[in-house]
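Meet our chain:
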Amino acid sequence: MKRTPLLPLLLITLLVLAFTTEMTNAQTNSSPASLRQMAQDYYNWRDRNYPVDSSNEGLHTWDNRITDYSLASVMSRRQHIKDLLARVNSMQTTSWQKDDRIDWLLFRAELERVAFFDRVLNFEATNPQVYVDECTNAIFSLLKKEYDAPRTRALSATARLKQMPALLEEGKKNLTKPVRLYAQLAIEAARSIDSLFQDSLMTLARASSPAERDDLVKARDAALSSIHGFADWLEGRLQGMVAFAPMGEENYNYLLKHVYLLPLNAEQVEMLGQAELARYRALESLLPDPTLADPNPARSKSIPKDQEAFLKAYEQRQAEMISFLRDNNLVTLPSYLGTFYIRQLPEAFKPTSPGGFMNPPGRYDKDSSGFYFIPTYNPQSKNFYIRAAIEDPRPILGHEGIPGHFLQLSIANHLMDEIRRQHSNGIFVEGWALYCEEMLMRTGLYPLNSASQGQILRLSRYRAARIGVDVNLHTGRWTFEQAVKYFMEAGGLDREAAEGEAAGAASSPTQKIYYIVGKWQIMRLLGRYRDRQGANFRLGGFHDELISHGSLPVSVLEWIMLDDPSSLEQALH
């Protein structure tokens, strides 16, 4: 018998062992436990690398730092996301249990979102708002809640302020192809930042020593000088900057499918917007007095005398709404639910948030309270949101507060499954809040044919108009000015609000489709859920179950609540 040479035999043995080890590692790395560890490592990495976002979410470990936007760090973060996404995509999950596979899909979608914005939009190179927003939020995140002693927060602010000049210099290096529209918004925000730094911030300095206060003031003045200098630098280059460029339909559809797990493409989303716009314009017209849809403070029984009275009136109406929800068993309010406050919108946020914005409790917050920031009170204002708030703030409160964002996000923060707790599908979040507006009307909160009811119709009308703007702007069919005009003509907005809405649409692709698309999905799920429940159906029960799972895509919720994965499968193929 011929002997097999020893060296080839040894090589074969080593190859078999290596292959076996590789297969074992692949199986180990494809387990639900490895997915969860991978996800937790990612959350830790993200929180450490984006310290200002961490502060916003109530994690104050790195309050003395801002994000490193040196080109090397930007590219390193992008590569990390790319590598991690490749690892997640390589996991073999077909044999996993349903809940584990859902978590895999959710984590993958989260990574797809970050990778998409890095690859397609490249905001560090195109959007100066990245750097102005970092400066604004670096301070705002330390002020919005009294999570620690004022002196401690003041010291953190001083440390962050000292890093801002270098950050803005890095921004100048990174902005190799700035977009003119984004630069204009960044300039406006930078020019409006003084009150945040000079007034709001200095409230923290009361407990500081004279030396600490002097250090804060010196750092603040240097930061402000750099921020204004950055605005000057941008202004001097505006004429040579590129115009806003759409991402294109292929990229838009990729975002819908891979990030939002949405079973619709851009064309279908745009058609949904047209259908809903036609419906709500017609419903306005069917009111006995169609002008009820256009808020008018003159119809109000009492007009607040000043900003303080305006804010208090807002909060009092929220208490009425909570009683209505409880009396009608429309939703269960958990015992851990905190207080929802109404605050004035800082000037720096007005360019892209003309109607204000909601600031919920963060994922890591020990304080369960939340805020809604509303524009500065002015009874003569032409701003839609101010006029609506004076006449009746309840429709907007239903969206921003309870049962809308504040309730839903507070519940999401208490989930035990970390991947689901961390996931935030904007289409569901905004869809739920918009659904709440109409749900409260349909269940009897507002008198029939009232201005409140008219406001609900107008709010849905202009959310429907948002879809046409977002899809057509980012697929390249419309210019920015066409978007503004559409908001005014189709949405019924004044020019100030329309320009702010269009600017927000351009700066945050797909964000404007969230509302109507999410509401439509929830309404569709409600009808199917009721059919399945039959005589056992209870509206409050549907609401409780729907928001008990966190801020998940509705296609995933259909799989959870109806055991029907067909919408999700449609999105994935």
Q: What stands out?
A: The chain is about 65% helix and 0% strand. The CA atoms of residues 98 and 260 lie 19 Å apart.
